[in-house]
Amino acid sequence: MTKLLTIWLLGDGKPGHENQSLGLADALARRVPCEVHRISIAGKKSPLARIKAALSASEGLPKPDLVIGAGHATHCSLLWLARKHHARSIVLMRPSLPMAWFDLCIAPSHDFPKPPKRANVIAIQGALNRVLPPLVSGRSGKIILIGGPSSSHGWNGENLLTALTEISTNGSWQLTDSRRTPAGFIGEIATHLPEIEIFPHQQTPPKWLPGKLAMAAEVWVTEDSVSMVYEALSSGANVGLLPMPQNRKNSRGLRGLKQLTDEGFLTPFKEWQTTHQIRKPPSILRETDRCAEVSIQKLSL
To answer: Would you say residue 1 has pLDDT above 60?
Structure first.
């Protein structure tokens, strides 16, 4: 009988970070029998407070084989739990602590000035996610994903509304926003583009978007939301990039998007305006599944 793999997911309360941990756990569970437990240290301000919260929240749980965490706030607690229970540790994104302290580090390649040579590092394109393996056939959905202002991008709702008017002329479109989308913009879309079916992010369950993306043929994403771009690429859909004002022209996220555009994975809106064609990506970025396979091999799970 195959041993049940007990996984603890350490969360800092940030949806983007926890989505990565959940994505890796989902992918592992598609390969080996798993039991997953979530431990929250959200809201704790110091490393000591986070360690205490992690120990309290994990009390009584089955002993872990593997502890996974994403985000700087999880690093000390992740190591503490792994050492205390003699479990393997996986940190997602480049950690603030030495990478050698973790059993495995899974981080975007653009986090490194040159390709890492450490045996415990897996360099990936983008971020891990919960998008399901794509359907082989019958894909017909059309989805628009709206982000919002960030450290790397500003906001121009008027230009975005114009772009949405152009791309939504053909077919039936569904749209969802994010917690960064400015208040009132969804209402503007509803007023000016009533043919677009809107699903506010507050009203969609966690697996709504991964399920929709698995059936999508075409997806447009605002370039400020790098995580949603990689989710769309993981789905196997053709992906278009909606421009937003750039605050930092040479940010790591933008460098990653430029590389993907140069390699033919993304269609910029300006290119689409000329050709009215959206590129078919040269391959499907199933980085989460690849990392699950490599993690099983490297850690002998």
So the answer is: no
Chain mean pLDDT for the chain: 92
Residue 48, classified by CB atoms within 10 Å of its CB into exposed (0-12), middle (13-18) or buried (19+), is: exposed
Whether CATH 1.20.58.760 fits 141-275: no
Higher pLDDT, 130 or 6: 6
pLDDT of the residue at 2: 64
User: For residue range 212-221, what is the model confidence (pLDDT) as tens digits?
Assistant: 998 899 999 9
With CA atoms as reference, report the closest residue to 167 among 60, 242, 64.
242
Report domain extents, the chain.
Answer: 5-130+288-299, 141-275
DSSP three-state, residue 197: strand
Q: Which long-range contacts link 263-267 to residues 24+ away (Cβ below 8 Å)?
A: 265/233, 265/239, 266/229, 266/233, 266/239, 266/240, 266/241, 267/238, 267/239, 267/240, 267/241
Lay out the sheet containing 88-92: strands in order across: 34-40, 5-11, 66-70, 88-92, 104-108, 121-124
CB atoms within 10 A of CB 187: 10
Half-sphere exposure of 84 (CA within 13 A, CB side): 15
Please say whether the beta carbons of 23 and 102 come within 8 A: no
Instruction: Enumerate the H helices of 66-182 as residue ranges.
Output: 75-85, 157-167
Which of the following CATH numbers is that of domain 5-130+288-299: 3.40.50.300, 2.40.30.10, 3.40.1190.20, 3.40.50.2300? Answer: 3.40.50.2300
Cβ contact 214:133 at 8 Å: yes
Q: Which alpha helices (DSSP H) does 61-216 contain, by range? A: 75-85, 157-167, 185-192, 208-214
The pTM (predicted TM-score) of the whole model is 0.85
